[in-house]
Structures are given as structure tokens and as C-alpha cells.
Amino acid sequence: MAYEPVWSANPEKLSKFEFVKLQKDGLDIIRTILEKYALEGFDSIPADELDLFKWAGVYQQKPRNGHFMMRVRINTGIMTSDQARAIAEIARLYGRGLIDVTTRQAVQFHWLTVENFPDIFRRLEAASLYSYEACGDCPRTIVGNPLAGIDKDELFDTTAIVEQLNDFFMLNRDFSNLPRKFKLSVSANYYNNGQAEINDLSFTPAVKIIDGQETAGFHVMVGGGLSAKPHLAQKLDVFVKPEEALKVASGVVTLFRDYGYREKRHHSRLKFLVADWGAEKFKEKLFEVIGELPARGEDKTLGWQAAYFDGVHPQRQEGLSYVGLNVPVGRLNSDELNQLADLADSYGEGKIRTTMSQNIILSGIPNNKLPELLQAPVLQRLSPVAKNFISRTVSCTGNEFCNLALVETKERAVSVAEYLDERLQLEEKLRIHFIGCPNGCGQKHVADIGLQGSLIKTPEGMVDAFDIAIGGTLGTGDQGPAAQFTRPLKGRVKGERVGPVLEQLITFYSEQRSETE
Ligand code: SF4
Predict the structure, then answer these.
(1) CB-ligand 1 contact for 394 (6 Å cutoff)
(2) Tens of pLDDT along 222-236?
(3) Does the beta carbon of 436 lie inside 6 Å of ligand 1?
(4) Among 36, 305, 339, 492, which has the highest number of CB atoms less than 10 A from its own CB?
């Protein structure tokens, strides 16, 4: 039986959208789409129902003329070549061939119509892929280590745990009406491949002596998130054995569901509850739900590699390598994805892996096949050795498709990266992130240079402009520097001036920085 919401006893404290969710569970929209709207067309969809489409993984896209964006969950970014082909085919048939890799390792289609959805859901399900709950007030795509299982730098393989968590939460009506979205990260990689501090709940690698034995498991962070009010997740004083990860995750989501704020949409993420309670009270409440856990052990996070894997690298398995490819601002087309799927089968282990830096990894390549693989025509554009700036540029969707965007981002990001690559030679690679509004999907808060779109008034009218912030980083473990968000610089730069201004800024930085910067 579906969970009975305790918060509905206080209706005066609920935001308007909570009433919509109380009348209809978000998951019910999937059946309504199939049985009604796909047959009767876009004009038959009432506005309230459109908001529930998120539970099916779709948003209305810009321009608002009946087209949709759909997000597909790729948990921790790992998919088979056949799944990649299914994605490529859907994009070719219905999405003008366009595929975007997101900063949460998912993929997105554009230009879909509601009449397309039944066939798309069917094609996805046939490939064991799902758009369900990729958006909406529910547990979404689980991010983490795209190298799980092949990683020289992971404490243990997290693949089975991620599958267990995904199978438990997806389409689970006990957790399909949360106060807001819930972002989960699972990684046992030593270099923070799960970007732990910016998720609602993160499992990170740790060990602890239990009954005289060193036991590998997780530490836990809660309450991270970006957007206009970014919060870094807080560490809980607990050690979690791998087999207890599901119990902990379900306890945390239960606390969020039952105690999370439902009065204002912009004040509903778990981060606000965690900030108010503090880590100690949150832990005590968690223990009330799931029982006690041992205290923290030894943290095994040693650094942060910002989810970049470009180039050729040895795997845990002797004689095999993975190849990290640059996908400029995360966008590729269906032909390219098909070609990558063929390469994954011919040269590798039949897997394609997406990263939180919006890039792709081919894995399981025998070392003697690497020279031939690297000659593949598709790797000319999706290169393992892309130039410095284009290889480190991330962009959200922007106003090409996103209704919340103030400015265009992806084309701007590519042109700025190309401008800088033509002019600047730096030894290190600076990460530049573009976002089109304060929501932060492009994760500008953790960039070396983060650019947030806005509009400014000029004699010629309103034009695109960007606020610039610098110095974001995520955590590097108990011994290393702590995570911090970007700090804003004064002023706002017209879109057309971003390239030259960044050229000046980076030149100044490279000439003036101290040795430790
Ligand atoms: Fe849209 Fe804003 Fe997210 Fe960019 S950051 S995709 S503009 S909501």
C-alpha cells in the first residue's frame, strides 16, 4: 500500500504544488500520458498535469510549442553499447539526432512530442533504460564513479550497490512524493568521483577496524546542493558497511520525506533541513529510523579529479585500458554515439561511460588494440587529447531549450573555449563552467571560473551578460584542502566580451599567482 503522507495534516503549511501532488502521485502521470495525452495531443494537457510530467522524466522545452526535453537515467554513467544504440536511435527518430550528456551523468533528448512518448518509453524499457523519476520530487539518477569495476583507484566495486539502490527507489511509491528532488551519490573512488559535497546524500570510501578486521565501507555526507543558495554536504559521524547502504539511504530519504520543508519550493531541498538540524541531530534522527551505526573510521578520499578522465589510462585489470574522450559541452549526435557503441564492441568490453564533466569513456581496451582504436574517425572530434580549454569547459542547456534560462550558454561556451585555446598556453587545465540562470545545473559553484548568465540594459536593448566567480573546488579528504564554492568577482561582462575578459583574467592569474595556487 502506498505511504500515507503525514504532512497533509497541516494543509495551511503546504505550497501550492504540494496540493497537486496530494491529488495525484507523480508516478501516475506515466499511465495518463500513455492512455490519454499521447492519443489526444499536447493541447489536451492541463497546466497542473504538465508539472507532473517531470516524474516521467520530461519537461516542456523552449520554445513552448509542444516540444519536450527528456532525461534518461544512466546510473553512475555506466551503460552497455546496446543501450547506447537505443539512445542513439531514439534521438535519430524523434530528437533531431541531438544527445546531451548532463553534469549528473544522464543523457537528454530534445524536440520530442507527447505523441512520441509511448514508443520512446517502450524502446527505453526494452533496453533496460528509464526516464522515470529522472526529474521530479523523488530520488533521481544516482551519480558516482563511472569507472566502477575497472578503477585502480577505488576501494571496492560499487556497481551492485548502485543497482540495489536504483531498484529500490525507482517507481517506489513510498518515496515518490518528496518535498523536492533528491540527489544521491555513491563512489568508492579515492579522488571523489562522486562529487560528494554537492549531493543530498553521498557515500564515500572509508575503512574501519570491526571485530579486529579492517572493513571497507562508506562514510556518509548529507545536505549538499547547488542553485541560488548552495550548501556543502555535512559529514555524519557514522561508518556504513556496503550491505547497509540501502538501509541508510532509505532512512535518509524517509527523514527528508517526513520532516523536509514543503512550504516554499525554493526552500525545500534536504540541505535546508540539514542546515537547521545540524549533522549531530540529523544522525540521532536517522538512528531513530534505522538503528545505531558505528562511528566514522578512516576516510579514504585522497583528492578530487573533478570527474575528468581524458586520455589513455590503465585499468585495474592487467593489460586493459580506458580512454577518456572529450565531448565538447556534452553534446554529440546519434551517428557519433552509434560509432562509439561500435568501437566499444570492436575494441572494448561493450560499455560506454558518461562523466559528470559531460564527457564519455570507452573501457576494457586491450593495450595492443589502443593504436588502432585511437585512429577511429569519430575520435577526431570526440578527442582523448582535446585542447586545454575546450576539454575543461562545461555548460548547462541554456536558453536554446531551457525555459528558466536568461541567456544562451552552450554555443557561447564553445566559442569562448576556442578563443582561449587559440591565445593561451597554460600548463594546467582551468575548469570553466557556464550556467544560464542561478539554478546551477552547469555546476558553476565548483568551477575554477564559473559564469552565470544574466541580462544587461544597453542603448541597443537587453543583451546577454555574465557574472564571473572564481576558485571553486570540491573536497580532497580529511587531510587535504576542504571544498569551497566559487567567490564572485565584481562587475558583469557582456556576452561578446567574455573571451577577452577571461584571457586577461587568466593571464593575470598565471603571472601573479603564488606557488601554492
Ligand atoms: Fe536551465 Fe538554469 Fe539549469 Fe541552465 S542552470 S539548464 S538555464 S535551469
Answers:
(1) no
(2) 999 998 999 999 999
(3) yes
(4) 339
What is the 48 CA–ligand 1 centroid distance (Å)? 21
- ipTM of the prediction: 0.99
504 has a pLDDT exceeding 90? yes
Which residue type, as a one-letter code, is found at position 219? Answer: H
Residues designated as active site: 71, 180-181, 436, 441-442
What is the spatial distance between Cα 134 and Cα 72, in angstroms, rounded to a whole number? 6
Distance 412 CA to ligand 1 centre (A): 14
In this prediction, residue 460 carries a pLDDT of: 87
Torsion of CA 126, 74, 398, 180, to 10 degrees: 100
Beta carbon of 450 within 6 Å of any ligand 1 atom = no
The verdict on the CB of residue 166 being under 6 Å from ligand 1 is: no
Return the number of other C-beta atoms located less than 10 Å from residue 264's C-beta: 10
Q: How far apart are CA 12 and CA 342, in angstroms?
A: 56
Reply yes or no on whether the pLDDT at 476 is more than 80.
Answer: no
Q: 20: burial class by Cβ within 10 Å (0-12, 13-18, 19+)?
A: middle
> How far is residue 339's CA from residue 346's CA, in Å, rounded to a whole number?
10
* 349 grid coordinates: 568490453
Between residues 1 and 512, the one the model is more confident about: 512
CA distance 200 to 29: 25
Q: Does residue 398's CB lie within 6 angstroms of at least one atom of ligand 1?
A: yes
- 437 Cα: distance to centroid of ligand 1 (angstroms): 5
